[in-house]
Known about the structure:
Layout: E1 4-10, E2 27-28, E3 31-32, H1 35-44, E4 48-53, H2 57-63, E5 70-74, H3 81-86, E6 98-103, H4 111-123, E7 128-134, E8 143-146, E9 152-156, H5 163-166, E10 170-179, H6 180-188, H7 203-211, E11 215-219, H8 232-252, E12 256-257, E13 263-265, E14 270-271, E15 276-277, E16 281-284, E17 288-289, E18 294-295, E19 300-302, E20 305-306, E21 311-312, E22 317-319, E23 322-323, E24 328-329, E25 334-335, E26 340-341, E27 346-349, E28 352-354, E29 357-358, E30 363-366, E31 369-371, E32 373-375, E33 380-381, E34 386-388, E35 398-400, E36 405-406, E37 411-413, E38 416-418, E39 423-424, E40 429-430, E41 439-440, H9 452-460
Parallel strand pairs: 1-4, 1-6, 4-5, 7-11, 12-15, 13-16, 14-17, 15-18, 16-19, 17-20, 18-21, 19-22, 20-23, 21-24, 22-25, 23-26, 24-27, 25-28, 26-29, 27-30, 28-31, 29-32, 30-33, 32-35, 33-36, 34-37, 35-38, 36-39, 37-40, 39-41
Antiparallel strand pairs: 2-3, 6-10, 7-10, 8-9
Amino acid sequence: MKSWAAIVLAAGAGKRMHSNTPKVLHLLGGKPLLAYPLQALERLSPARVVVVIGHGADEIKRVVPKTHNQVWAQQRQQLGTGHAVLSARAELKDFDGDILILSGDVPFLSDQSLSQLMETHRSEGCALTMAVASLDDPTGYGRIERGPQGDVRQVVEQRDATVTQRRISEINVGLYAVSAEFLFNALDDLSNDNDQGEYYLPGIVSMAARRGDKIGTVTVEDAREFRGINNREELAWMEKALRDEVNRSWMARGVSLKDPDTTYIDADVTIGPDSIIGPNTHLLGRTVVGSRCRIDGSAYITNAQLADDVHLAFSVVLDDCQLGSHVSVGPFARLRPGTVLAERVHIGNFVEVKNSSVGEGTKASHLSYIGDTQLGKESNIGAGTITCNYNGFIKSRTVIGDRVQIGSDTQLVAPVVVGDDTYIGAGSTITKDVPPGTLALSRAPQKHVEGWVERFRAKQTK
């Protein structure tokens, strides 16, 4: 059996988005729109994938990772979908198999529909096979005009259709399987004699019909599969539809969502069974949540990795960090990129940790900042402690050993090393390394001025 290739059309500007960002780079479920058809194709393993780009080509190349068999082709001028497919010819000049053609803005297109189209195309020996659907309201779509025997004659675009043709409910989905030989010969003969002066890909359907070539059709039942995104309203609709689908799938796999309507889970997030997700929670990017975790709510979590049995109290922000098992964080805490918490660490209310590792069983329960720090196990950080890691030019690291007790309102001025089993007195400013097993104090002597209050009050009331 001959191999097959795919052409993905992603060159359009998406003018109705009113955006400087190329349409296919707008995010849906935390991923660019273009990522969805590319991932579907990657699962089906075509011999080659040619992505036709135009508007914002450099940005698309920078943002969308290439798959192992993917190449870029550029449409220098946007002269229609037929011209866009023709722009892929150079990348397929030595290819003589079948070609699947699809758009880059159809995120719900299923692997099954793609496979069925290609299988029908090959099993029936068609020159061209197209996906079709029947809609109660086909407004805006090209209509499928058939002959008396049910054979496809042509696709009539909405703007060119007669009153009778507009009553046709069968529409062109915009998904094709075509033999390479027929495709590029037909594209060479494609006309741009229309209101827009563009070369429309559906024109190859009437060419195949006139030549007597066999045209196959596959019906797509779920309208979401072929629904593209043309404006912000449609993007928001798709976002909600995807969120509902993702949330239902996680609940079916043993995850409890306290309020699915206010739970936002990106497509690449994974969650272990028996975890409980509270309301107004955002799980974004490639976040991983282990089993039996509890997220109380109002959490904003991006690219974080949570092991099993983690508890996130109300209103925490996590970004690019790793949490070991039985860790508790919050309420009102923030973990910034580079933070790694070992097992049984407790990060309490109004504590911020940045680019730091925290050892097993260590606690920082209140009102502290830990930045650029290596912090050992079974230590305790008192309220109001901060690591002073920035001098205006460079950031330096603080190293704190195991079983260290740091009193409240302590400043550790980096670079500094605090040895194992040390105590730091409350209110100290530590600027020098502290040897293991010692007590470090840095305080001005306490003074008592007898009679001061009485004299002060008398002076103020004169």
